[in-house]
Fold this sequence. Notes:
Blueprint: H1 2-19, E1 27-30, H2 37-54, E2 57-60, E3 63-65, E4 74-76, H3 78-81, H4 85-88, E5 93-95, H5 96-107, E6 114-117, E7 121-123, E8 126-130, H6 139-144, E9 152-155, H7 167-172, E10 180-183, H8 204-216, E11 224-229, H9 233-238, H10 252-255, H11 267-270, H12 274-288, E12 292-297, H13 303-314, E13 317-319, H14 329-342, E14 345-348, H15 353-364, E15 370-371
Parallel strand pairs: 1-2, 1-10, 2-5, 6-9, 6-10, 11-12, 11-14, 12-13, 14-15
Antiparallel strand pairs: 3-4, 7-8
Helix pairs in contact: 2-15, 8-14, 12-13, 14-15
Amino acid sequence: MIxxxxxxxxxxxxxxxxxxxxxxxxxxxxxxxxxxxxxxAEQFLGVLSFAKTLNRTLVLPHxxxxxxxxxxxxxxxxxxxxxxxxxxxYTKVILMKDFMTHLADxxxxxxxxxxxxxxxxxxxxxxxxxxxxxDGNPFGPFWSHFNIDFNKDIFYQPLFFEIIEPxxxxxxxxxxxxxxxxxxxxxxTLERNIPLAKYFVYSDYxxxxxxxxxxxxxxxxxxxxALHLRNGIDFERACQYxxxxxxFFAxxxxxxxxxxKGISLTNDICYPSDEQVLKQTETMIExxxxxxxxxxxxxxxxxxxFQKRFGKKHNIKIIKYDRPSSQxxxxxxxxxxxxxSIARDAIVNCPSTFSAFAKRQRxxxxxxxxxxxxxxxxxxxxxxxxx
Length: 387
């Protein structure tokens, strides 16, 4: 306990000092403005790798959440949900609030703030060719949260961000002329960066809320089967566009990035029927003998159907997380993800990026993961694979 306390004090001293210590190699900033948390987390992995390759400090963005029945978005500090220290073992990072509070005025003063995008864009409201970095939601609210306005747009084509060496980027955009590379969208791709998911470690804030919930309901992860049902109307519509010969959203986690596992993406995998969910769940219950069935869903939790089919027959407790009115839907989703991550067994959705986050958290813990509609295929621990 004393060692942990001393380690935390040392980390705090170093981090506080680093807030005022300018990185001569510059900074990288971006808006995670594409999708909800699952998408934002996937994009973050690519950006993390890109920042390290450039040897720039990554400014950790706020997460973007979309309240129901609202045209606005909320900006959530990175460290409310995840720890900063594990990321610092991989590369240089700083919280966006700390950068804007302690460093922005001297490193990136107003009047010299440039935004980067691949090429010029024209939108329906303006014929001006620019990045349109603050047009619409969440782009505008994200940058305006810290009163950031851009004075110049820079188009970085033909450069790309899936790189091994930083020479071209650093030659074209040296840190002494471009101390901050601020991207209108996430500059990074996913495939070779999946092992970086191990640096996502939940904050004490989320961990304590999740553990309190588990203790309250006397749930042990050792006897827990957790399900993720991606059955909202938006996903039902999205699954109408699947193609058996290509990946869709996060489906590479069960099909392989080059479809090398020989699995065709069908609607049974993308959007399984209630009956299919019940059958596959019962097979898993009979195989693993859990005492608790936990349901995470963005649509129908199917509690009454699960209870009717399994409650008495298998003597199993069936439960979901009930969000208090004071808690946002975005925050509550992280309770679901935490439980999905630590459960002994789990069945998740193959194309879902939300499921993919849970699956990679399970990979960190060397826990196997099953997918709806996928049979007789051994899931790959992506964090240990040679990508």
